[in-house]
């Protein structure tokens, strides 16, 4: 299997978590979306017509869309299942995952922020305000869904004792928002899941800094006393 990913892409990160949880080791192909590689004709025509990451090619079958890829992986490599079979849990996991994937992520995607800045000429500060506003609105909903889930499913993950698609979606969204400098302290339930994932081997393996195409942020050499954010959204 070939896997097309960008280290800072939260949608690639979702699939990286799924691959790591299932113990799969695909051939890695870095696609630098900051450099526009996702628009290369070969990539668009042969790998992912959506001109986005992630994508996989599995025995000649090419597939984009992170949630469709994870569903495909679940079908072919069912252990562990990330989209549960039991109807109520499945519906809850999908409801949560779509909140992140369909409501939170798209408005803060790279091309949206670039359009705001390059075409509509908003200032970098306004662009950050846009990101923080939609992130906060979405995360408030995440907390409400987690509060309801916690009444029924007990365990360290979004929906109980095992990680699911919901965790594949939440962790990258939380991590990227943190990198963008958002205050994540108000999201107590999401943070608890994030902290738990931070020491889980599959989740650690999937982190941006552990990817072959990782590029350290320009401020990486700065002293720890002067933290600054890597404010380039992927
Ligand atoms: N819904 C798609 C979104 C894919 C997507 O937009 N990925 C981002 C990176 S996180 C991307 O490739 N952005 C390129 C751009 O915005 O130009 C998925 O879940 O795979």
What's the topology here?
Elements: E1 2-5, H1 10-21, E2 27-30, H2 41-47, E3 55-58, E4 61-64, H3 66-76, H4 87-104, H5 110-119, H6 124-152, H7 165-179, H8 188-197, H9 201-206
Parallel strand pairs: 1-2
Antiparallel strand pairs: 1-3, 3-4
Bound molecules: glutathione.
Main beta sheet: strand number and arrangement? 4 strands, mixed
What CATH architecture label of the largest domain applies?
Answer: Up-down Bundle
Please give the oligomerization state of what you see: single chain
Strand order, biggest sheet?
Answer: 2-1-3-4
- Low-pLDDT runs: 223-228
Q: How far apart are the first and last residues' alpha carbons, in Å? A: 24 Å
Walkthrough of the structure:
By secondary structure, the protein is of the alpha+beta class. The chain has helices at 10-21, 41-47, 66-76, 87-104, 110-119, 124-152, 165-179, 188-197, 201-206; strands at residues 2-5, 27-30, 55-58, 61-64. A four-stranded mixed beta sheet has the order 2-1-3-4, with helices on one face. The longest helix is centred in the middle third of the chain and has 29 residues, at 124-152. It is globular, with a radius of gyration of 17 Å. The site of glutathione has 16 residues, from helix 1, helix 3 and helix 5.
Task: Report a brief summary of the structure.
A four-stranded mixed beta sheet has the order 2-1-3-4, covered by helices on one side.
């Amino acid at each position: 299997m070939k896997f097309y990913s960008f280290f800072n892409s939260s949608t690639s990160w979702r699939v990286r978590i799924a691959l790591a949880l299932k113990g799969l080791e695909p051939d890695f192909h870095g696609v630098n979306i900051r450099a526009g590689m996702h628009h290369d004709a070969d990539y668009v025509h042969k790998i992912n017509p959506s001109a986005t990451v992630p994508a996989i090619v599995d025995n000649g079958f090419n597939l984009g869309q992170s949630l469709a890829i994870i569903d495909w992986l679940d079908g072919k490599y069912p252990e562990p299942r990330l989209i549960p079979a039991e109807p109520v849990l499945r519906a809850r996991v999908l409801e949560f995952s779509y909140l992140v994937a369909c409501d939170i992520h798209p408005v803060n995607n790279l091309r949206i922020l670039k359009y705001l800045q390059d075409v509509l000429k908003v200032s970098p500060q306004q662009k950050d305000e846009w990101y923080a506003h939609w992130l906060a609105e979405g995360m408030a909903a995440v907390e409400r869904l987690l509060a309801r889930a916690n009444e029924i499913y007990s365990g360290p993950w979004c929906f109980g004792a095992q990680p699911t698609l919901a965790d594949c979606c939440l962790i990258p969204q939380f991590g990227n928002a943190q990198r963008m400098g958002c205050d994540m302290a108000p999201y107590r339930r999401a943070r608890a899941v994030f902290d738990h994932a931070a020491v889980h081997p599959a989740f650690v393996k999937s982190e941006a800094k552990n990817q072959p195409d990782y590029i350290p942020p320009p401020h990486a050499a700065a002293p720890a006393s002067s933290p600054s954010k890597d404010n380039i959204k992927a």
